[in-house]
Amino acid sequence: MSSSITRAVIASQSQKVEDQLKASISDGEPLVVVKAPPGSGKTFLLLRGVAHAAALDLRVAVGAQTNAQADDICLRVARDYPDMFVYRFAAGSSTPRDLGANIHWITDKGDIPPGPAVVVATVAKWALTQILKTFDILFVDEAWQMAWSDFMLCGQVSGRFVLIGDPGQIPPVVPIPVHRWETSPRAPHQPAPELILADPGLPVRLLELPACRRLPHDSVDLVRPFYDFDFGAWAQPGERWTRALPSRDGSHPVDPALDLLADTSVVAVTLPTPEEGPPLELDENIARLAAETATRILDRGAEVADDDTGEARPLKPSDVGLAATHRVVNTAIADALPKTLPSAGVRVDTPERWQGLERKLMIVVHPLSGVTHPSAFDLETGRLCVMTSRHRSGLVVIGRDHIRETLETHLPSAEQAVGRPDVTGRGHTANLRFWETMDESGRLLALT
Amino acid sequence: MISREVVRRLRAFHQGRPLPRGATVHVEIVPDEDLLVVAFIRMGGESRPWGIAYGHPSDEPTILWVPEGRNRDLVADMCAQFAPALLEHFRTPGYVTPAPEQWEDLAPLRQLWLPNSSHLDMLHHLAYAFTFTRWGAGARGRLNAFGRLCGWLFREAQRAGEQHVMVATDALRESFTFPAQDVRQGHLGFLLAWLETAGGRDSRLRAALEAERVAVSTSLDPTVERDETEDLVGAWHAAEEAGDETRQKEVERQLGEILTRELRRRWDLTVKAIGVLRADGRPTNSGVGTLVTEGLKEQWYQHTRQELNIGDDEDGPAFVPSPETDRYPAAAGSRYQVYLASADLRYSALLHGDTEMQAEAIASGNAFRGTIVEVRDEGEGRKTRPVWVIEDPVGGQLRLREGSWVCVAGMPKRTGIIESIEELPAGGRRFEVRITRWTTKPDRAADPMHVGRHVVIVPNSAAGMNRRKSQRVWSADTPGAWLTHARPQGPRAQLEEDLAEDLDSITPVVHSE
Fold it and tell me: How far away is chain A from the Cα of B6, in angstroms, using its nearest Cα?
């Protein structure tokens, strides 16, 4: 599939996916997995499925990966389905939130009605609650963030599952050595949908959302190599852009890169790599450049177009996000920003925290900027994929200028267990392709 | 490597000597009678041992070896000879009287000390070789038990915070920062030379480089194997073929001298490392006791109980795990959650008792230090709901968020939730922490007397949650078990009984069909 498929085709294919999901629910199919590219309407589809199941008078459980995601699902229900009554099942120690008139906050499992109901909780809550009556179906949001061992505990919630997620995002955090389970048929640390899809004996219906609706057209081409399935772009070429107005107060080294954003949605800016190599963790210059880029584009009074109307809107601080993989760099970026910007809505955070969120303009520090000998962890593409798929109109990638050479001269070793996919090698290829594309399409500007 | 570790390493380079790491020692060192030192050597290209040295530090070691390390029968005989000592040391049912009946019977802790990680790998090789072996007629049961114990010890060594299997190089590196690259710090002689040599950097470095030239791993130095043992092994075969027993005995004596020398050096270095750690003036971290208790329970549930063949409602059926991996989903899921819990427990248990670890946690944003500036009680009636307002004048990076579970350093039971985080105009942060446990003892958390107190707030351990998951994951009487607990299918799913765990012995317990 190319990114140039028409909106009519995308709309038709999206409707087909929704119809297939609903049919699966109606027919009592036990297992559905939905692969979704970034910003493709995962939550929209999930809620369509939930509403359909609720209309069939089923007992419906929804599992989110974090409390914030569970709250977000409830807020979407309150906005889009004001007639659907939903229970937000939370920890006893939690502080109740007002999520909408039709969202009822409960902390006692005894308050879950025994009949048809829609109940939203985190998967951790579902895993550790001895529920009194099982559900007819469990929907899991952001399912690629859930390790198989956590999913196993969801077996007590229901016998039917709908797992929806983005396979390109950051896999579950694994803070311990897992050599013991590298060859296990059900490796407990692997994303649950991956294990399910790898087992040809399971009765799974696989659906794929057809297009990314968030990213500008040319950004979709850039992130597609991070995925093992094809998808298109909802945005048409040239429809989404970021235009920095002419400078009124001199120039800044990053100005040419900001000017480029009028013609392309992604630009990369590099600083020279010191002879002794990039700083180990905290790269002050890179952090300062990221902060200055955000400040500069707001100072220049940029306009953005980020939807189907092509209408220009002024870029506000709350439209801007920054991301780096190291917290210490994020702290340095936040410190380098004018004090007024964070309180006005500029957000600085790690890619883990950016998952599921979006901004009109993102400024990100490339994960390999401080790395000259990439490890398997460094070459895993989830972080880069998240960082480069949060923007609706523009993205600035910042890094040291060694990245291409580092990738070209690095030979990844195949350290995976026998019979396991070469994730590191694939990550290396995807990383290199991303940087080559930026370089060869003239979207990479080297500052001195 | 995080920045703080780099700084620590640079300081060690600057001072030209190893520097103490942490304000406390993080490993238990049991008395000699509970401590077994074991060292192995193997023939080049072989995975099984050629010789074994074992014993308590205060005694002379027992040294076993065979003239031909490639002869599996001879090696198995040797292992069968060593097996009772190891099995008895770890109070294995059938090898100790009376047999333990509960985890408390396994106290006091028994430890195994090994020179470096290659000796730990040998436990894995032994598990592969003997767990399911059908060889050995009368010795088969003993060898199988030996293989199972080696397998458990190897797996246990991967669990964070465990105290049963001590790799001497790791214990030294945990306790000291050495002025050397990581790759060189796997050599026990190298580390001990840095620690024990008097004088300045040059003399220490010289001694370390000298020590490094002599092998301490399970492999013999290639020059020793080529110049000293190769011809003797050939001569032993020739004598055997010729039926010349006298010659064979003479060659065995010569080989034995070499192998004994090599084994003894590895064993002695390990004993020396134990001595260095015992002589360290730092106190043992108060959290180590918690880790020892956790380790004894693990020994019971993962080894002793299996030997007694007692199933457990919460920890699954008794079965022999495969040396390679856990193929049954609940076994894999449960162990993974236990390892997660153990990593969390280790960090938490040690953090409360080590001010340097707390400083590291603050530097990396996992904790913060501040002063209580206000105490409120938002409770109604007799119910207390204390809230502490804490100001941290420094700020810096922070991983903790609103909603994070925390506790007071040194008081792990006084837990709380961060309700709000506010950046202060002059820098630093203001936290509101609602105290959720230990609200009335040892002092009332809502008492205004806390105002002005300096506190370090650290993450609360999530180990209990992972432990509960590890137990619940065994429950297969659920509607989704058809997917979550399905027995693996397809190629290589069912392996021969001498290769892997018997899935039939696990699945009937959790699947009635």
Answer: 9
